[in-house]
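To: structure subgroup
Subject: Chain for Friday's discussion

All,

I'm putting the inputs and outputs inline so they're searchable in the archive.
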Amino acid sequence: MRKKLLFVIPSLTAGGAERSLINLLAILDFKRYEVDLFMFNHEGLFMELIPEDVHVLPLPENYSHFVMPIRSAVSKFLLDKNAMLAFNRIMFSYKNRASNNVSIGEQKSWKYMASSIGKMDKKYDVAIAFLEKTSIYFCTEKVEASKKIGWVHNDYDKLGMDPDFDLDYFQKLDHIVTVSEECGHILKRRFPNQNNKVEVIHNIVSPKVIKQLSEKGSHDVFGRKEKETVILSIGRLNTQKGFELAIEACGIMKVWGIPFQWNIIGEGEERQNLLELIDAAGLEQHVKLLGLKSNPYPYIKQADIYAQTSRFEGKAIAIDEAKILNKPILITNFSTARDQLEDGVEGLIVDMNAEAIAHGIARLIQNQSLSKQMSEHLSQLQLGTEEEINKLYSLLG
């Protein structure tokens, strides 16, 4: 008899955790497992990539009303004579807006959202919250399962969360999975009494699939000009990814007279701010926000350099993908950087400021023998991580 698994994630919009889940589900053994997927939002770039063996659960009716615009939601609940949900919808909005930190807002508002979601009817062998915060809170409070696993995809200390709040939930988990050794060390330091639960499972990436998908863009996806170096970054447009540092670095490189274009794939709340920075620096011809791309691999393949200017990361899946496509890489020196890249061999790790980023990019452009050496080194490595699925199987039991 197949074991019943439930995966929980907020949505399948573009992002590293979302891409990682799709990769995991693509190689999961469905002969051994019956899989349900619960999401809080059924829109997203990767919805079309969900394997047909996965059953996507419908949204609870009250929750569907709860996430409507606040006026519509409150009106609906009052019309249905449900004053408590109307009040909770107002408090949910207030707690999110009143918090300076998005993660704290998500923690403080959870109980109000939770009131719109009843406990799940089906019992599972294993419930897997595939992202920190809401997914974990949902799994621990709303799901009946013999075993519960929570995933943390980032450097926990950099998320700005209240660890005392999370401790109550972590104590109810059987395993806490994270994506790199350094992230594991951070969790063990932050939650010493949960040490025995922490496991490291690296993001699953498949070189075969990535290389196949990279061939689908036969035309020039960048509209490259003569002698122009193309730099690519992928990530959500938020403060974590540090794209304003990239824009500032572009201003420096423009002054130096380097012909380049820097393209960013992603979407998020910082889009307007980034556009204003680009405009103020006169960089419209140099920096392009490309939005979301369901298949980013032709862009990685055709780029000359992959760059990640993040303030913090767990383990950025895009860096692993750029390595598979043999790109010279530049990343900032976030806490888990050396878990991802061998400095000077696979790419460059630079200080987290615009001048260091500009100097690093210029070095990769001007020292072609170094860039070629990095690419050739990457081409010799065995970079697939499909075997990481076996670590998950051992946890599922």
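Points worth raising on Friday:
The longest strand covers residues 144-152.
The chain has a mean pLDDT of 94.

D.
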